[in-house]
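Forum > Structural Biology > Help requests

Title: Can anyone predict the 3D structure of DUF305 domain-containing protein?

Hi all, first post here. I have the sequence for DUF305 domain-containing protein but no way to get a structure on my laptop. I'd be grateful if someone could post the structure tokens.
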Amino acid sequence: MKSYATGLLVLFIAVVVSACGGVDAPDQAPRSTDQPAITGAPAGFNTDDVAFANAMITSYEQSTELTDLVSERSTDPNLVALAADIDAAQRPNLEMVKVFLVQWNADSDTSPDQSTQGNPVAGVIDDATMARLKSLRGPEFDALWLPSMIEHQQGAAATAEAETAHGANVDAVATARQLVGSYQAQIARMQQALAGH
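Reply #1:
Sure, ran it for you. Structure tokens for DUF305 domain-containing protein below:
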């Protein structure tokens, strides 16, 4: 019985000593919390991620312009519905990639002449085609809009595929992977619509 009590006493002393030894720990803790959780540039992203986000913003903004034209110029209700579906699917993604840039403290570069600065955004429709689309209505508009939008979404899909291959940020890569499937489904619908015209 005496040995049992002695054992308990030794255990108690060990606990007290270890607790007392921890008294100095708070002096050290503030030193570690003085530093931000992420030091320097936020971890987990690279220049490919930033390029992807900027390219997607440029792509989404033109895509919105393209889909807005359909309700004003097309007489095909199926095409109007398709354009509305594309626009609805892309608006949340536009906001998401903008958030990525804010999280990474990276600048958004969506200047009008971005495509002439050596890094053209894949699929972006040239000014002449955009001007022609704005001048057309009815079946003539549809005949130009469908292949133009298919080309646009193929370029966006290629940009997303490049991000899945070279991006470092897990959220951006996951978003890109999801976008590839979404673009492929949209392209298939537009190709089917084009075949019916």
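The chain has a mean pLDDT of 80. The chain is about 75% helix and 0% strand.
Shout if anything looks off.
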